[in-house]
Every structure is written in C-alpha cells, then in structure tokens.
Amino acid sequence: MMEPLYVAGRSPLHRLPAWLKLAALVAAGAGLFVLRDPRWLGLAFALAAILVWSTGVTARAVWRQVRGLLWVLLAVGLFTGWFQGWNDALAVVLRVGAMVGLALAVTLATRTSDLIDVCERVLKPLERIGLVDAGKVALALALALRFVPEIWRNFQEIREAQAARGLGAHPVALIVPLIVLTLKRAQEVAEAIDARSP
Amino acid sequence: MKSNNTVLIALFAALIVVLSLMPPIPLPGIPVPITLQTLGAMLAGAMLGPLRGALACLLYLVLAAIGLPVLPGGRGGLGAFLGPTGGFLIGMVVGAFVTGWLARLLAGRATGTWAKLVGYVVACIVGGIVVVYAFGVPWLASVTKMGLPKAATAGVVFLPGDLVKAVLAAWVASRVERVWPMLGR
Fold first, then answer.
1. What would the pLDDT profile of B83-105 be if each residue is shown by its tens digit?
2. N or C, where is chain B less crowded by C-beta within 10 Å?
C-alpha cells in the first residue's frame, strides 16, 4: 500500500538530475502565476500533459491522482466563469492544470531516494549551524515508512475485535485505542533504539 | 531517552498517514464526507505538544512530497502542494503547533475533566481550523485568482465537518490523556 508513485523508465525527464527538475518546477510555478493569457497557459498545460505522458505512466494511475482535483477545478471554473467571465475561468483551470501536471510529471519521473538526497543537501547548511540533525531526520523518515503498514494492521485488528463484540465499524471508537497503541509502540521502539546505541 | 522524541514524531506521522487513508466518513447534514487527515493534525498537536506535533505534520508532508501516496484517496507528490488546496496542507504544520501550544496552556492547567475537554476543544478549533484556514483560503484565492471573499465562501462548505472533527479530536485527546498522560512530557 506504500508503493511510491515513481514509474521506472528512461525518458528524458527521468534522466535529468533531481535538483534540476525541482528547481525548474519552482521556476515554472512562479512563471505560471504571472501568465494571464489562456493561449500561453494552454501551451503550458499541453507541455505538462506531454511530460506526464512521456514518463510512461498508466492512465489509471493518473486518474487516481487527478480525480479529486477535477471536482475542485470544475467548481472553481464555474465560479470564476460566472463572476469574472469565461476567459478568466479558462485561464484559471489551465494554470492549475499545468502546475499540477508539471509537479506530477516530476513526481512520476524522480526516484524517492533521489528526492530524499536533494532534501539532505538542502538540510546540510542547517545542520552546520546546529538547527537540524540529519541522522535524526533519516531515522524519523525510515521509522515512519516502516510503521505505516503496522499501524494500518492495528487499525484492522481493532476494527475486527470491535465487530466480533457486536459493535458497528465506527471510526470514532477506533481512534482512542489506535493512538494508545501507537504511543505505547513508540515508547518500546525508543527504548530498543537507546538500548542498542552506545 | 535520547531517541524518544524522534520515534514519537515518526510514529505519529505514520498514524496521520493511516488516518488519511481511512475511507471518508459521510455525516448526516454535511455536504462533503470528512477525511480524517486534519483530525490527525489536531491530534498530533494536542497529544505531542507544539514542537513535536508540528514536526510530525511536517514529516507527513515530506512523505507526501517525495511521491508516496499518503494523502486522502491515495494521492501524493508535489502536485498536491501546487494545487488549489495546497495551503491547507502547509497550514497543518502551523495549525498543529498552535493546537499544541493552546492545549498545553488551556488543558494542561485545567483541573476538572470538563474544563480539560473545553480547553482541548478551543485549542483544536483555533489551531486546527482558524490557523489552517488562514493558510488554505488565501492560497486557494491566489492559485485560482478568485479573490479572498469568494475563496472564503468556498471554504465554508468544509466548516461543519471540521467543527465535528475539532470536537472529536478534543474528545479523543482527553480520553487518551487519562490512559496515557502526555501533557507533562
């Protein structure tokens, strides 16, 4: 359930270094805010769509990512169209579509580990002045990834236990035991780590 | 207890992931089914305190940003941040901080069970709703260029669900506090 969105491939976007892709994304985000003409925004949207397609992603995976956004975009488009004219509405929808598309393309074409590397490099100067501890950040990331499936399993078990006692599957009643279990597990893990560290 | 805080932050981030991936709950009289993601942010603040709560939310957002499908509905990646609702994500971090700070201030000093619960409710409403909307609504307004008043009107749809979540988070926090006290730690 925690498969990254990354799609393995050899497209030109895959081969660019991760930091360049992220820097380009930030620049594109700023650029799109300035553009107002729907024609240029349409061009940007088309470019984003081509980039997403070039990563070799399946249509199903893209649909999963954008289906929630479609409703928001539809509402925003109708709202803007009604109050400010359809030219503006088109511009808004294309701008958001292009921005999300470009970001999705970067996400699909960049390995999670490469993105973490960029994060680490950005954190380096902060570490030197003593603001963050890169080792702790790495530990926290690894632990969070490790414990998502486990907490999900706890959630299922609590739900089954409550169902066996004739209680309906109400998430509210699940959360208290789920949090207590998580806090308890956190203490055990912390003790285990401290026992092994010098 | 050197790694205690790091582990707590990591496991709470994992808990927010699980809460986000739970199926959305339809509530009677509320137009949009609620997801438990913002509940996770309120709980992180209320249970872990300002700093650790904010860091747990930040870690959750890092997981999303590096391309893991941890946002509600299995979404993730950088697109979620640049989209119209990205401000609500960034707002989670500051929201958890304010929730935690207020929870320590109000619920930490309260003596009775009800006084504690009220303290938690206030903390969750101010931190989890007011602060989160203070980031989310201007972001929505600037991404869609629809102007602040209209964006605020659009945000009102989510207000009833968020109020329910704030009360729920407060109730959960006060229940957990009785079994596993976190306020003083």
1. 888 899 999 999 999 999 999 99
2. N
CA distance B154 to B87: 14
pTM of the model: 0.84
Architecture of B4-179 per CATH? Orthogonal Bundle (1.10)
Residues 74-93, chain A: which have Cβ within 8 Å of B? Answer: 75-76, 79-80, 83-84, 88, 91-92
How far apart CA B65 and CA B18 sit, in angstroms, is 17
Q: Check if B172 contacts A (Cβ < 8 Å).
A: yes
The C-alpha atoms of residue A182 and residue B30 are separated, in whole angstroms, by: 30
Q: Contacts of residue A148 in chain B, CB cutoff 8 Å?
A: 14, 17-18, 70
Any CB–CB contact under 8 A between A169 and chain B? no
pLDDT at site A137: 85
Q: Which residues of A165-189 are buried (b: 16+ CB within 10 A; e: fewer)?
A: eeeeeebeebbbbbbebbbebbeeb
Q: Which of B5, B25, B75, B82 to mutate to test the interface with A (most CBs of A within 10 A)?
A: B82
Give the distance, in angstroms, between the CA of residue B127 and the centroid of all CA atoms in the same chain.
8
Q: Where are the domains of chain B?
A: 4-179
Residue window 34-63, chain A: list those with CB within 8 Å of chain B.
none
Q: Which residue has the tokens 């597990």?
A: A185
Task: Tell me which residue has tokens 């709980």.
Answer: B43
Chain A residues in contact with B175 (beta carbon < 8 A): 176
Write the pLDDT tens digit of every residue in A39-86: 999 999 999 999 999 988 888 888 888 887 888 788 888 888 887 788
